[in-house]
Amino acid sequence: MKDINRDEGLRQIAEEHYGAMLRTARCYVKESMTAEDMVQEALVKAYERFDSFKRGSNLKAWVYRIMINHCKDHLRSYSNRNVTPWEDHWLERTESAARDPLEIMLEKEEVADIHEAIEHLKPDYHEAVHLYYFDDLSVKQMSNVLHMNENTLKTRMKRARDHLGGEIREAAAAQG
To answer: Which of 12, 80, 99, 166 shows a CA-CA span of 20 to 30 A to 62?
Structure first.
């Protein structure tokens, strides 16, 4: 995307990454409709401010940064959101598959355990886990989005994985 024009570049980002951007925004604002607004407004801002995009930089990371900043601005002005992140996404995926109801129920329990463990992560770890696993950003892209050293992000990811592993083992031991 180095020498791509504004319309083509942002169209491609919207087509290929809208769902991932929506999930990321939903994690921040905790509400599906507000998350849609955040993504759409971020894409409009990216379109309007495309002249400030540095050629040779990662367009996806730049658009994500705009969206995340927009979500943070929104959170500063509004609070008390109660929607669980990723809830709709996981529910749709598990219910759409035509499988045995017991298998679906067990998968929902596992997903609930994972979500609960992710919710217990410190905010810095939560953000890194979400961007890496749910939005498929590389460590380098995350570094650009979060304005952070790659090694710091790698350390956060390791600590988050260690914490998640402990939480999931504890939940599994408690259940059976």
So the answer is: 80
